[in-house]
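Ops channel
N.P.: pipeline sanity check, posting one input/output pair.
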């Protein structure tokens, strides 16, 4: 959000309730949703900012956190604004503060969506475990009532140097000694669930990776979330591994439809569609239906093709009348329909 006020971005007062904030967010997200603004990069950026603003103030704890991180002296100052730990000296204090301010997190997670969501695109809420400063010790890592101290062995540098060779200090971590560790964190850092909005574009294949950038939070840098999208397989359509925008569907037809041709109806991901089965169609014949596949990620507004593979259905249980008719029909079969196959073997 580049430091912008989330209340202003959503058009609500600071006193707005959770429901009022949610209503404002839904109204704006609908207006700027990529599905309603295909190819509009500005609308897509605005949509992402709105989503981040909503996440920042969606409930009371989130609002309190945003105010503490963005409107407190510690949130707006530079590294020198962070007071050094008592007994550590100004150099060690600045070193610790600078380390925290440049702490950028990259988190990997997965989101599972249905084939239908992959076709149309969707907005999915995800929750990841993100690092934050411990509220009990204020990020010092020391138990309340105690303070960290500078390591005597390395003089607060966190390393030993012998000539040009540097090795980590064996007695401390980053030049700081904590005699009484805080029992609520690990070195001043806790992990807490953070909600994010993941905008799934139409046409994503299984295994698609996308990156979400979270807003900077006070003493922390930005959060980068690498999301792997897992798409549940469709019971009807099979995606082409080479071009995931192309789909295959097996279409059952009767012997009479294959022999005489027919007009049938088949499903596509978006609608029912009429399909003409040509006369003399063999089982396994593939018919191409243009622009009825999945949306193309790289070309918004375009879709792949749908391939219909014809499969002649042979009844398992024949009535006497059906068997009689088939036997009558067999009298007109070729004397040996497999002769061409034997001829090809002899040629090879």
């Amino acid at each position: 959000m580049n430091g912008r006020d989330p209340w202003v971005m959503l058009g609500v007062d600071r006193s707005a309730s959770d429901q009022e904030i949610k209503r404002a967010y839904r109204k704006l997200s609908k207006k700027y949703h990529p599905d309603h603004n295909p190819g509009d990069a500005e609308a897509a950026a605005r949509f992402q900012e709105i989503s981040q603003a909503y996440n920042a103030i969606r409930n009371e704890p989130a609002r309190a956190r945003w105010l503490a991180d963005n409107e407190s002296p510690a949130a707006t100052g530079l590294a020198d604004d962070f007071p050094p730990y008592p007994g550590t000296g100004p150099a060690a204090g600045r070193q610790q503060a600078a380390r925290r301010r440049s702490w950028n997190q990259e988190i990997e997670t997965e989101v599972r969506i249905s084939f239908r969501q992959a076709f149309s695109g969707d907005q999915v809420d995800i929750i990841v475990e993100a690092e934050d400063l411990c509220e009990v010790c204020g990020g010092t890592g020391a138990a309340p009532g105690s303070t960290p101290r500078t390591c005597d062995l390395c003089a607060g540098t966190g390393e030993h140097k012998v000539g040009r060779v540097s090795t980590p200090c064996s007695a401390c971590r980053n030049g700081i000694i904590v005699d009484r560790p805080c029992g609520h964190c690990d070195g001043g850092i806790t992990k807490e669930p953070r909600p994010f909005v993941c905008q799934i574009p139409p046409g994503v294949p299984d295994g698609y990776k996308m990156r979400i950038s979270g807003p900077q939070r006070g003493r922390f840098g930005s959060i980068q979330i690498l999301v792997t999208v897992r798409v549940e397989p469709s019971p009807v359509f099979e995606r082409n591994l080479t071009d995931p925008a192309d789909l295959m569907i097996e279409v059952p037809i009767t012997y009479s439809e294959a022999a005489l041709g027919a007009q049938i109806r088949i499903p596509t991901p978006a609608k029912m569609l009429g399909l003409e089965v040509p006369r003399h169609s063999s089982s396994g014949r593939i018919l191409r239906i243009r622009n009825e596949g999945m949306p193309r990620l790289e070309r918004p507004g375009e879709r792949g093709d749908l391939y219909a593979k014809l499969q002649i259905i042979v009844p398992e249980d024949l009535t006497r009348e059906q068997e009689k008719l088939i036997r009558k029909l067999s009298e007109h079969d070729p004397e040996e329909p497999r002769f061409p196959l034997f001829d090809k073997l002899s040629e090879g």
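N.P.: looks fine end to end. The chain has three domains: 1-71, 103-132+190-233, 238-347.
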